[in-house]
Amino acid sequence: MKQVNGEPWTGNSTQAPPRSVSLSTALVICYGNPLRSDDGFGWHVGRLLAEKLAGQDAEVITCHQLTPELAERLSRCKRAVFIDADAEGEPGKIRRRSVRPQAPASHAFTHSCTPSALLADAERLYGRCPPAIIITVSAQSFEFGDTLSPVVSAVLPQVVGQVCREIREATGRKT
To answer: How many domains, the chain?
Structure first.
């Protein structure tokens, strides 16, 4: 547990991180449904990254969908990377885009969030949000199943390498 001025700080969602709490370098959030074929792409990337980044100053989270609770963790990192499957585009196509904080038109919580909304929440609730990108891969299949289509599976190593380069740039270390 981190300590601030000798007091434990749990990082609960009701308080902003104290200025003296060190920030983790990178937070990688991999999301999607692992039981809907290519929609589980984020989970596959997350598993590979967790092995590759073990011992690094990076945290890998896998989840079914983005939730408001992730805003607190985002506020405590220096760089964020989101990984997801995309329903648009040629199957297997990798896209990298910057993500900027943007509050949704409605402030009512819904069953899902966007990376932009989470960054806006981190900034609004905790006073900071990190630079962020999203890397997506266009899916071929969203059918029931726990394996990736061959075309999406083939780009796994490229995406893992791309995320490692992003983290290396953020940390200045070899990953």
So the answer is: 1
